[in-house]
Amino acid sequence: MSSVLDSDRVLQKPQRKRIRRPITAIEAAEAAAFADVAAAICVLSRVLPIAGAAILVSSIPFALLGARRRLRVGLLAGVTGWIVALLFGGYGTANMVGSAAVMGVFCGIAIRRRWSGPTTFGVSIVALGIPAAVFFTGLLAVFSTYREFMFDQIRNGVGGTARILSNAGLTDVQALDRAVTAALRVWPLTISVGTLVGVVLAAMATAVVVRAPVVSLMKRLGQPVTDSVVEETGLIAPVPVSLRDVSVTHPGAITPTISGINADIGVGGLVSVTGRNGAGKSTLASVISGRRPTMGSVFRRGNPGLGAPGGTAVIGQRPETSVLGLQVGDDLAWGDPHLTPQQAADLLDRVGLRVGLDAETARLSGGQLQRLAIAGALARNPQLLVSDESTAMVDKSGRDELMSVYRGLAGTGTTVVHITHDADEIDRADHTIAVPGGDTTTHEAPSSARGRMVAGGGRIDVRGLRFAHDSGTPWHRDVLAQVDLIIAPGQTVLITGANGAGKSTLARLLAGIERPDEGVVLLDGVPVQNNRTGALFGHQYARLSLVRARVRDDIADAAGLISSSNPVIVESLREMGLDRSIADQRVDHLSVGQQRRVALAGLLAARPRVLVLDEPLAGLDEPSRVAMVTALARVRASGTTLIVVTHDVDELTPIADRLLEVPQIEPGPVRLARSSRASLAGVVGRVLPGTSPAKRLWVGSKVFAIAALALMFGINPTWVSVAAAVIIAVAWTAAGRVPVAALPRLPWWIFLVMLGGGFVTAMGGGAPFVTIAGVELGLGGASTWAILISITIISFYVSLLFCWTTPMVEVPAFSQRLVGYAAKIGVPAQSVAVSVTVALRLLPFMIGDFRVLLQTVAQRRSPGQRSVRDRAEQWSACMPIACALAAQNAREVAASMDNRGGIGSVSRPDRRPGLLDVVVIAGIVAIVAAALVLG
């Protein structure tokens, strides 16, 4: 029996009745990724006084999703963002994300459907304004005590403002006070009309602000990826497979990525796929694993069975997006909750991964993550395993170990297709498929151009350097100790060492990005600065070093040139061995090798005294590696002091003056500061090290505590409720063994807001009254304000306690339990569990990428350039790239989900609550009930 997939079958799609399709893997992944972007912005706003602006900015990723996907995906993203923000930032942050989601998704739909202004206005009234008015009016009707509490705040605030203005000589301000008081007497009408008008105005303002950036981002991202996996039933037989004249043209592209490919892959054995960067090797791998070609034929005996037992499994290049679970055991059980612990352990043994099933995947090295990805693929006993450059980002020993695993699998009957640039790996294959085309724009610069961009290197002096991540906090981790180093002007130094030794950290210190805890890093006798006049840093992931859309614009921005037509741009490209025609291309259309050299061209055009590069050869094919080494030789010839972190010592030794190996230090005792050194942004979403009774509690018990406090404050916002909340928070703090060093330093403006608000409400507040310096103040108003501030602080602190005492790895199992409860009442919620889990998995990488982007933009700023406009431009430059990276991460995660069978269970079964949980829940109920009765 044979199955033929050809162009006729692709083009002749049967007409089907429109049905309600379930959420697909790519939709869930995009919902999670864009929700992460919005949640991160709103969490950051908790440490900056920009809440309103944060809601507006965070609506952009939701609007982009609304413009790209159907309404259900936007709603899923909103729910996901709300949950993630609640876990990391408390009620206030969650409500900010919720507001951004509503406004953003609505505006995205308006863009997608091309609504006119009047249409957008009318629909906003019906779809947003009226439902919001009904909801908030009903909510205030139910929680009457909280309603009066908030009305007191409004009366006191308006009365105090009116009194202050009146004392300043303004007349008729008391009329405002009387108008507000009268409006609150008829609050159902006032709240309904006010909410409707406010929501509609907010929606229209958001639509005006986000339209331009969303339209620009849609052009940048291209057509949204859709699920194109061949869906067939019957026999699963991915191999043998024959490809005849296969071509693939991606949506929006003019030329095919691959064209006229012919190949035969049999049963068993190791097949290597080679080709230049950009040749389409990954596209060919997707066809081999079951995606439809644009033209040509694919012959098999049956269905490729991507993600199905006995079918096809795929492992990607980036282990961060190939591994889906937050714990090792959960990743192996993704989509298969019935996997036994013994079966999981056998899979780990099979790939040589010596870690426990409860180990956190975020703490594994790159090589360990790739082994776990292989084990997850093997969980379904595939006949065909496709490795898409899975060894590219692993050091030499790790590559050898992974190749041994693949060789062993091939010897036991599994067909392994491995995409690689490495000559040794190609030699170990039984058969090789060469993909033509790709990056062929390597050009030798004319001799007259070499060395013309003379920079003049600087001298680096490192004395007594010691550095630890999160120094003086509970998360303190020593990285470097007693480093003394001198790098002469113009020297080229290679930095190498074992994974985790601190190579990249040392590089960031030498570039002035990080500051040492002890010692100094001097550039020509003064502390090194990360800018054009000091030291510049080139990241391993070149895309994070490019912040403008076009090549010439990015080089001009990196070099501080006024005009993007400056001849220095073409000259810098020639120095990197690139043709001048690349200057007008978009950076997203370049191959990885080209992006690396364009980033280096921009760095060198800035003429820094010191240039620090992190793994410049990683992931490049052989021609691109040769071109990069040649380019680095030219950098050396320019006189720049060059520092390169690399595993590829053999290839770079000929151009280096010195080799520095960073030793791995033994972790010492954690040195906690007497007073907190932690910033508010640095403690959000982090679990405390060590064990504690609070950590051992079931997740549901802690979620119950948060919900109970919210309900108590909604029913009875009084000092009695505040006291009850303090009792619960103090008990939680003690049970969590929270050290003083974990408590964050609050920003100065928080105290200013507290004092200012208290003064205004005291000016308009009620009895009892006191007179201070001749000013009569109402302690009643001050007390109401103090209750509100206390509720806000306690709510945020409780969210911190939840993060500090709840490993995020336990959340997916709890969410899977809730999915089971929802299913019993007929509510499908599996996509929510999947999206939340993916969001928690991606959030650390997204935050890391965003920090790198901010650093890239910051190092391009001239010394002293700190105006508000400049900072706004820096943030606006990061937003499109953050969304583009979110879309890319979503594509890779969706592919990984498809490789595991699509939407399915996200973890092993949740553990049951114990006796301690019952006691804790009963205690919370008793405290809250007492507060409600006494209040």
TrEMBL record:
Compartment(s) of residence: Membrane
Membrane topology: Multi-pass membrane protein
Pfam family, one: ABC_tran
Keyword Kinase attributed: no
Domain ABC transporter: 241-462, 460-689
Transmembrane segments: 47-64, 71-88, 123-143, 186-210, 703-734, 746-773, 785-809, 821-843, 915-934
UniProt xrefs under SMART domains: AAA (SM00382)
InterPro entries, A to Z: AAA+_ATPase (IPR003593), ABC/ECF_trnsptr_transmembrane (IPR003339), ABC_transporter-like_ATP-bd (IPR003439), ABC_transporter-like_CS (IPR017871), ABC_transpr_CbiO/EcfA_su (IPR015856), ECF_ABC_transporter_ATP-bd (IPR050095), P-loop_NTPase (IPR027417)
Domain of life, source organism: Bacteria
UniProtKB keywords: ATP-binding, Membrane, Nucleotide-binding, Transmembrane, Transmembrane helix, Transport
Family the UniProt entry places it in: Belongs to the ABC transporter superfamily.
Name of the molecule in the record: ABC transporter domain-containing protein
The species this protein was found in: Williamsia phyllosphaerae
